[in-house]
Amino acid sequence: MTDALRIEDLRVAYGRGANAGEVVHGVSLTVAPGEFVSLVGESGSGKSTTAHAVLGLLPGEGRVTGGRIAIGELDVTGWPDKRFERIRGSRVGLIPQDPMTSLNPVKRIGDQVAETIRLHRRVDRRGAFADAVDALRDAGLSTPETRARQYPHELSGGMRQRALIANAWACHPSLVIADEPTSALDVTVQKIVLDRFDALRGEQGTAVLFITHDLAVALERSDRIVVMRDGRVVDEGTPAELVTRPGGTYTRALLDASPSVRRHALAASPGVVRADGAAAPGTVVEAAGLTKSFRLPDGSRVVAVDDVGLSLERGETLALVGESGSGKSTTARIIARLTTPDAGTLLLEGTDSASADRAWVSRWRRRASFVHQSPYASLDPRSTVARIVSEPLRAHGIGDRAQRAARVLDLLDRVALPREIAERRPGALSGGQRQRVAIARALALQPELLILDEPVSALDASVQAQILQLLVDLRAEFGLTYLFISHDLAVVRQISDRVAVMTEGRVVEQGVTDRVFDSPQHEYTRRLLASIPQPGARASA
Known about the structure:
By secondary structure, this protein is an alpha/beta fold.
């Protein structure tokens, strides 16, 4: 039987002449029809570059310099872009990593999926749109008829990711290459999407090359796992083989670093103290009855936040969890005063923000920094890393040029980035590196409250562990308070003191983290916890 994908001794380089540098060194792997193969490794290991090489999508001066690539019976090595266009979407579906840069911001979601269908199938405009709605439904989007008529900016990050998934499988390809397709998804929708992958494999023999940093997902769903490091394959095997007999220290280190696979307690915070040595209590945020709605294209309104009440105590970490579209990010934006609620009260350190003047709101925004969900969309692609990280310092007139430059280097050290990337631009960084730049920028003003919207969702396991420990260390050192938004419940349990569970814009349960995880009271909370990947099931099979 012909493999759905065969890569033999693949080599990829960037640059020309003396400046050329090889980044993928002799990678070989296969994916059989109907097989689910996961490609795992740290950010910058060459996973995405390998996938992009398969479809002729290497950016800039990237090029295949050696080896062979076959998709089914087609040897596509050296194909020009025009020839690849015939099979992208029809023979091979690609789910890119970031939905904000992959979706057209001025076209409705349904039209974008329908366009792919019309390119590869003989169907009229109306039929293509109907098929697009079906694809959105299969990808797990609620009310797909409404979502199809919305623009990307009107959807949450997870909804946009599901639109990309719908676009990839709309033409029923024989191979799907998925580059971090579930990194923006909550656990319940992640399960829906992964179940859909399994259904495609069973019904149509669709093969899946699944690129991920989430080892729990890889171990639960894969038939085989290929581990990459520094552009090379360093380990390969079934989930059971990698868990019980990892082929090298690197694989063992990845397993040990993953909170989803093996829970590790982060170093305990010693507690927040004032200069006089006494405890520093106090409520930083107290919200009651918060409500926020948005108008949809058809003129109706959707309630994103509905009668939300919660509080944040100084020095604690409160996690907001729930499905994509549950209102987590809108609630966070209200607390950051980036969005104004329609109703309710919001006391920020005892001051009613609804009646505060513009100067007070400006001061609050300096004390409350926001780390956005997508580092691709929140970083200026034209600026260097140094300029991006120092931007808050310049905006608030802090320090001279030399002091700001020194502060940038210190922040890069804190988020485990090499200092030499200070003069690079975001396009030259991996997804995980971009996220760390975003965190460094948020820390620049030494805020009291850090609002983190999926801050580690784009990071591989080892760097994720470093960032989580960094957040714990910073909280202890500076008395920071965190509002931590995440769909990764393993991470939430590791870092949070309390958890608030949201669905359909409402908080349905909140309490101390261990209590909520060990004894959930609401049916929705129980459903969330039941959707967490269980790597042990496949590994022990």
